[in-house]
Design brief:
107 residues; mainly alpha; 0% strand; rod-shaped
């Protein structure tokens, strides 16, 4: 009899667990619908896949940015020609060089 009572108790526990688990899932899915757009965006951005894709896009963007600065640097006259310039120095030198070229065209 004890084993039958134990079996019934185990069966009841399993049944009650099965009834509880789907309710939790429903709560989560209904909870996801209740999330604001901003909260869903934050959760999506927190995933490893999103972070990896974002890092790859950023790496490509920075690489293109650096290539553009290298191309601009090739067009600017400096002494010595192989002098290493920072990005801000390249921009300032480009501004001065453009102003000089405008002055030459006006004269």
């Amino acid at each position: 009899m004890t084993s039958n009572a134990e079996s019934r108790e185990v069966l009841q526990i399993i049944t009650s667990c099965n009834n509880v688990a789907p309710a939790r899932k429903r709560e989560k899915s209904s909870d996801m619908g209740a999330l604001s757009r901003e909260e869903r965006r934050r959760r999506r951005r927190a995933t490893q896949k999103y972070r990896t894709a974002h890092a790859t896009r950023e790496r490509i963007r920075v690489e293109a940015f650096n290539v553009a600065f290298a191309e601009l640097r090739k067009l600017l006259p400096t002494l010595p020609p192989d002098k290493k310039l920072s990005k801000i120095e390249i921009l300032r030198l480009a501004i001065c060089y453009i102003a000089y070229l405008n002055h030459v065209l006006d004269a």
